[in-house]
Amino acid sequence: MKAVVLTKTGSLTNLKQADLAKPVIQNGEALVKIEYCGVNHLDLLIIEGKRPVSGKFPLILGSEVTGREVKTGEKVAIYPWIFCGQCEFCKKGQENICNQGGTFGRTRQGGYAEYISVPKQNLIKIDKNTDTKKICAVTLSAITAWHMIKRAKIPDKATVLINGATGGVGTTAIQILKNKKCQVIARTSHNQKVGLLKKLGADTVLLNTFPENVLFIIDAMGGRVWTKSVEILAKNGTLVFCATTLTDPGIINIGKAFSKQLNILGSYGGTIKDIKEVIKMVKTGIIKPVIDSIYPLEKVPEALKRLQEQKAFGKILIKI
């Protein structure tokens, strides 16, 4: 099968086209013919050596996958996180923080290939009339956004600041929050994306500035943006965050944090329940996946470069 593999960490130049044997299916697994794979910041972090991997190279990146199960021909999405199904967290429906957990494209071969082997418990069936392209665009980023909103317990009609608003997480969060009749403040560092955010539904768009006294913040950036977000939270305010896209460390004034009774919540991915709920939101039109561009498999390095240079608005997909 054709694939794009990472031969070693370092840079995008270490991504190479390869012809590999189809995956060997083990007991309890299924073979999936991939149709689309989403491009994610996780890929860049792995390439840069900033995320632990299985240690086995060449590694096929790609965590957001849709396609067809070879045996049945059914359309499927792949839940991106590996889970055991037996630990205390899996039994609570918290597969995203499984004690034995991992991620496709990081600890197991991913989706920048024609085929992928998948534990059957990770297969999410898709209605035959549903576009696998649209579902691929939400299989990781939108689940992450929805999980964050639920963890932060953001109520209807709340005012919410979104950092990193133009990516897959941010564009989905805007749509879900507007469905909840929230006032959405979207931040971006790119002037050319201001109009796109307003068109998507953001009530206010801030260019490289921050508001004050915010009750709810969704942060998909980390670093100095995370630090500033803690500073501007209102009393009893909640910051929920999912990423370390910016590599500088987040800093917090502990005294101010406890005196203002701040709620600071990490949020990792999402659950099986979350992905099913997100797919339903796509089907009902609450979420209209924002697809920036689609590249062929051999153009994976170019697609990742577009993401790296922050040129994308929404999701970049690879069509296999």
Q: How does the major sheet shape up? A: 7 strands, mixed
* Secondary-structure element order, N to C: EEEHEEEHEEEHHEHEHEEHEHEHEHE
CATH architecture of the largest domain: Alpha-Beta Complex
Number of domains: 2
**Radius of gyration over alpha carbons?**
19 Å
CATH superfamily (homologous) name of the largest domain? Medium-chain alcohol dehydrogenases, catalytic domain
Class by SSE composition? alpha/beta
Return residue spans where pLDDT drops below 50 for at least 5 consecutive residues: none
Helical stretch count? 10
Shape: globular
Strand elements, count: 17
Strand fraction band?
25-35%
CATH topology heading of the largest domain: Quinone Oxidoreductase, Chain A, domain 1
Q: How far from one another are the termini? A: 11 Å
The level of helicity is 25-40%
The CATH class of the largest domain turns out to be Alpha Beta
